[in-house]
Amino acid sequence: MGRFLIKNALLVDGSGSVPERYDVLTENELIKFVGRDITASAADIVIDAEGLILCPGFIDPHGHSDISILAAPEAAGKLTQGVTTEVSGNCGLSVFPVTDMNADHLNEIYRNYGEKISWKDINGYAAEVKRREPAMNIVSLCGHNTLRASVAGYGNLSLSAAQIDEMKKQLDFSLKNGAAGFSTGLIYIPGKFAPDSEILELLRELVPYGKPYTTHLRSEGKRLVESINETIGISLAAGIPRLHISHLKTSGKDNWKKLDDALSAIYEGREKGLEITADRYPYTESMTELGILVPPPYEQMDSVSLENFLKNEDNFKAFVKKLEEFPENYWSTVRLLSASVPRLEPLFGKVLSEIAAALHRKPALLCSEILRKDASGAAAAFQGMDRGNKLRILKESFVCCCTDETARPLDYSMGRSHPRGFGSFPRFIKILEKEMKLEKIIEKMTSLPASVFGLKNRGGISEGYAADMLLFNPSELEDTADFANPHLSAGGIRKVWVNGSLAYDNGKISRKRTGVFIKNEKTRR
């Protein structure tokens, strides 16, 4: 890895302190010295960074690269926007623990990545990540949906005391062996079937470790405030120290007015001693499974079951009839991003009403055909967020920047990304630069998420810290990806170091990959 000396950069060190001009010397994986007038003889490579900003590598607190980092370890979408570390295992979906109850389902939902899940627990997964030599660092949460399915599958079941105990045992094992926390996705199967009492029991496992609970709330729209209060109440009852809310938003125009009450609930929770943080991507279109739109009674099915159900012609016709009840204008708010339906590839990035018109089909029928073919992999963006609310949320001191995306390659061999997969972090800076000082923006992208997830010696530029850094030109910084061309690299990112190695250099990704699986080493108190 050698020694790099970066001279004359304006250093924004991640702490929120006023930027100053410093030289930074790295040695192997670490930052060796931060000071002024460091002699060139101290380094193997000297970089004159006049006019550029040096800051810690960005930490993505909400990613989904659990399997994509194995299939495409160069992590192009993340690395090219300055991300050096991702927290995966979000929204209740981690890739451990794996048992006979959930292995087939997990392999099915990740089938488009061409990877076979062969491990059983966090240690096996960490070993597989290490073997692939990823370009960025990976941190993982233990996900409730995977955990629940490992003992009971994906059905709408009330769990026995023995099953709850087995979940607690598996969660404790994951936390003991380096999982950074526990996540839920309470709108997804099977997490949506879990009562509050089940979540409470599992949260108590976090207490001895002091690790965070992250949640995709039960509702981000109609019952947003109630969902926040529910989550805060359970967290306080469990006695956990930290709650992290995933992609905080007010979804649906009728719910935009609820932001004041939502923020008030969060601040009230903080006043009661619960350290509440959140993340948010700087866009107003969300992205998730296309199947999230499935109405009752079909919403009780997991994606694999839905695919198989729709293969029956009578079932399919009844399903289409149900989707035809949606308002006609609804289909202009759902943007198809990817699916294993080759004939639709030229139309990816368009809303379903446009695609249906181009194919001379009704939107409900088209949507049903896509779900019959690829309910497990079809992804869509959903309109329904307000720009003003987005800005207010991004400005909150407790809110980090995130991508809520997988690390995809530059081509479309692993599907199409939401633009946030390539542009969230530069876009976050550009949106906020008129609202707050750059050092405070960078803090929200580096040391804040490092603190939330217990990442020691990361998220800052200081002696002894891991040499995860990036150099960017503030006048050239921009996100260039959009829904038509979502895999365009950000502008202005000059160089990115991961653990002291130059991983990205003026548009070129290094063949040498030095990312690691980071284990949160907090032990039981």
Question: How does this model look, in words?
Answer:
By secondary structure, the chain is an alpha/beta fold. Helix content is 31%, strand content 19%. The strands form four sheets. Strands 1, 2, 3, 4, 5, 18, 19, 20 and 21 form a nine-stranded mixed sheet that branches. It has a six-stranded parallel sheet with strand order 9-10-11-12-13-17. Strands 6-7-8 form a three-stranded parallel sheet. A hairpin with a 2-residue loop joins strand 19 and strand 20 (501-505). The radius of gyration is 22 Å and the shape is globular. The model has no long low-confidence stretch (mean pLDDT 96).
Quick summary of this structure?
The protein is of the alpha/beta class.
Structural class: alpha/beta
Number of domains: 2
CATH homologous superfamily classification of the largest domain = Metal-dependent hydrolases
Rounded mean pLDDT is: 96
User: Can you give the helix content as a percent range?
Assistant: 25-40%
Helix segment tally: 17
Poorly predicted parts: none
Strand segment count: 21
What is the second-level CATH architecture of the largest domain? Alpha-Beta Barrel
Q: Strand share of the residues?
A: 15-25%
Question: What is the CATH topology of the largest domain?
Answer: TIM Barrel
Instruction: Give Rg in angstroms.
Output: 22 Å
> Kindly, what is the distance between the CA atoms of the first and last residues, rounded to a whole number of angstroms?
37 Å
How does the overall form come out from the CA principal axes? globular
Please give the largest β-sheet: 9 strands, mixed
CATH class of the largest domain: Alpha Beta
